[in-house]
Each structure stands twice: as structure tokens, then as C-alpha cells.
Amino acid sequence: MERDVNEVRGYNMDDAVSSEQLHDIVAIAALVFGVAPSEMIEIGGFESYVYEFSKDKKSFILKIIHRERRTKLMLLAEVDYINYLAEHGISVSRCIPTIDGQYVYKVGQFYFVGYEKAKGDKVGEEDWGPDLFVQLGDIVGRMHRLAEVYSPSDPSYVRSQWYDEPRLNHFSELLQGQPAVITYGQKVLEQLHAFPVTSQNYGLIHYDCHRGNYFVADGQITLFDFDDMQYNWYVNDIAVILYYVIKGNQIGQNSQNIREFLACFVEGYTRHRTLEREELERIPTFLKLRQFLLYIAVSEKQAAGQLTERMKSTLDRIRGEIERNEEIIDVNLLF
């Protein structure tokens, strides 16, 4: 029987398996997807092992996920929702079955999930502009509209609620000696618990729609990596996008650029779903939540002795912003 989502905790991926064991696991994955092990090319991954492979002149993605990160039912829920979106016209990387028809295949402590590789490539500077912003808003708006009427094909296919996030339940131990950061997180959680939850403002969201998780081909976006999908406020999906737009040095803190991005994004989004003023007013809190979760995730790498210079720079920057009580965005830019 699968464990409840509350039992799934964070873990150090790099300690989960030896290189020799991983080699054997990848060989099994190749077998169940009907390709030679030599076809599996490692392409990275922060919390899962990710490979690319080719079959019948098409490219696919394999994720190898430890059972401590996701249960089988949570992964089946991801598959169900992705394919639901695809069937309703959303450009996403569909899930693919193994040669014996399984969408989630278990070997030892790991699960295999396969996906079509998105067409195109990462967003280039030539793509980054008003047309893309409108299209991104259009896709997210359509996803949220579909989420409002979505029911899993099997009632046991359930993703977690936002408050089940392990990093939000264990940060005090990890952040010992950082009282300002702990207080910051506690205040954000207090605000979140006070927000109203309705069928119109809350449902399944992607929760990681930054520009690293969609490709562009001939000006068309294909969205992928639904690993973080969960039940949350729809506007939080927008906040996550906005966070990386600002902090990812895509438009920086330039007020005019932020206004342009938001105006274009909202134009696309509101073709499919109304954005209420009170939803927009909550974006600053959701921006703080994303910043806090990022800080925890990088702090976990620090605790495991895996901190890169880039990660250290991120920690220092976020800690400084928190201690100085800096706002991530001027709320007036949201209206």
C-alpha cells in the first residue's frame, strides 16, 4: 500500500545510490523502454536522475525518482494530469508507457517515468518578449481553467496540498542559528493559512513554470517538468513565474520591464480565467514563499556538503534580503 503524502520527506539524492548501482538501474530502465543502455544520456537533475534517449527517431526523457521523494500514486497522479492537459489541447510533454504498458515502473527503491521530449530548445533572448509573455499567460490560464473541472481518472491519484511540503514542516532544525530567516518563514506561513480557499481560486498547479521548464519551437511553448505539481492557489503559479522573471536576471528590478511582462502575461491569462484584485494582492506573499523555499533547498545542499559557489551566492543574497526586510516587488506594479 502506498504511503500517505505526509510521509514523503526530502532526501539527499546523491547519497541515495552508488554510481555502480545507478548504472545497473539505468540499464534496467533502458530495457523496459525498449532501447539499448548506450542510448541513455544523463542530462542532470536536481532531485531526480534525468536521462535522454532516442527511439524510432524520436527523443524522450527518463526520470528515475526515489521512493522517498514521490509515491507511486503521486507519480500516477502526475501522469494522469499531464495526459489530461494534453488531451485538452495544452502543449505539454506527454508521458509515455514502458513496452509493457506501465506509466510508472518500480525497480527496488526507484520509479521510472518516461516523457516525450519537448520540441524546440530553451528560451533564447530572441524569443524573450511580449509575444512569448502573452502566450505563457495563455497557457497558464488555460491550465487553471482546466484544473477547475479536473477529476483524476482514479480517485487514489492524489497530489499533495501546499502545506504537505516537507521543507515547510522542518525548516527550524535546518536553519538553526538564523532567527531572522526562521521568523520570516513563520510569518509567511501565518499569512498563507489565513488566505481563503475556494473551488475558484485553488486547485492543481504546475508550481515551477520558470523558463527552464518550457521549450520554444517556431515561437510555440511546450511545458514540461510537472514534478512539483500540487494543490495550491492558482495565483501562486503566477507568482513563481514572476519570481524567476525578477530574480533570474531576465528583466531585473526595472519597473517598466516588470509592468510590460505582467501586462502581456495577464492579457493572455485573462482570455481564459478572471484574475481578481485580491488574488493579485497576495502575490507578494507568494513571492516570499518561493524565496523561502529556494533558501531551504539550497541550505539542504549546504548541510550535505554539496554547496557550489553559485549556491553560496544565492544563500548570501537571499539571507541579506530577508535580514534587510526587502520587498521582492513593489505591490503597485501589480495593478
Spell out the blueprint of helices and strands.
Elements: H1 19-32, E1 41-44, E2 49-55, E3 58-66, H2 72-87, E4 95-96, E5 105-107, E6 110-116, E7 121-122, H3 130-148, H4 166-169, H5 171-174, H6 179-194, E8 202-205, E9 214-217, E10 220-223, E11 230-233, H7 234-247, H8 255-269, H9 277-281, H10 283-303, H11 309-323
Antiparallel strand pairs: 1-2, 2-3, 3-6, 4-6, 5-6, 7-9, 8-11, 9-10
Helix pairs in contact: 3-8, 6-10, 7-10, 10-11
Describe what you observe in this structure.
The chain is an alpha+beta fold. The protein contains eleven helices and eleven strands. The chain folds into two domains: 113 residues, Phosphorylase Kinase, domain 1; 213 residues, Aminoglycoside phosphotransferase (APH), C-terminal lobe (Aminoglycoside 3'-phosphotransferase, Chain: A, domain 2). The strands form three sheets. Strands 1, 2, 3, 4, 5 and 6 form a six-stranded antiparallel beta sheet that branches. Strands 7-9-10 form a three-stranded antiparallel beta sheet, with helices on one face. It has a two-stranded antiparallel ribbon with strand order 8-11. The chain starts with 18 loop residues before the first helix and ends in a 12-residue tail after the last helix. The N terminus is likely disordered.
